[in-house]
Amino acid sequence: MPHILIIDDDMELTDLLKEVLAFENFTVSVAHDGEAGLTVVDDGVDLILLDVMMPKLNGFETLKQLREQWAIPVLMLTAKGEEIDRVVGLELGADDYLPKPFSERELLARIRAILRRSQTSAQNNKESQEPVSNNGIEYLDIQLYPGKLEAYCGGQILDLTSTEFALLQHFVVHPGQVLTKEVLSLDVLGKRLAAFDRAVDMHVSNLRKKLPDWPNGKARIKTLRGRGYMLVVGE
């Protein structure tokens, strides 16, 4: 069963979340500050619920240090209405955010959506209609290996989060097609696009920075204002 690590200094909330997640058959660990959370992270953790405001080490600094070593999916828990917290968290590599207070149903939906993305298997590729080679998915100089969540461009490995990997995979199997934010949010993030939700924009921005430009200096992912995004077919 998936192992979730909660890093939050609100003991009442963490006790409630632990009870809810255990009831849904998740294994749950808890740390009440960022420093403690970083010490218990290991390969057995499948997802981290990370609060922003904490003593000793806040959520942003915890996430920054976490991303130096781990690609474990992170769901940020932010104060309601604090858009800047969400943007900064996404820039630092969070997979998604959830404003407090939130419902148990919404939390579980976000968790399951993130876990589905991070646990993509080679079997899923075999059953899909995507252009799959014996070793994975290939498009021009991009190679993706979903079973290992590894991506290469021009022979160089890309340091992607699970969400960025899923986003790139979606672009690769729809090259030259305009993908709206609504479609990307639903198909990649597993949620309907809400008003003022910038998660898709931030993930695309992060992915664009990690993909090398074409030899002519043009970015591989093009923004079509008011329409969406497109993986440029080739330059």
From TrEMBL:
Protein name: Response regulator
Organism of origin: Marinomonas transparens
Domain Response regulatory: 3-115
PANTHER family, sorted: REGULATOR OF RPOS (PTHR48111), TRANSCRIPTIONAL REGULATORY PROTEIN CPXR (PTHR48111:SF39)
4-aspartylphosphate found at: 51
Compartments (UniProt record): Cytoplasm
Domain of life (superkingdom): Bacteria
Keyword terms: Cytoplasm, DNA-binding, Phosphoprotein, Transcription, Transcription regulation, Two-component regulatory system
Domain OmpR/PhoB-type: 134-233
Transmembrane segments: none
Biological process per Gene Ontology, one example term: regulation of DNA-templated transcription
Signal peptide: none
A single MF term (Gene Ontology): transcription cis-regulatory region binding
GO cellular component, one term: cytosol
DNA-binding region, residue range(s): 134-233
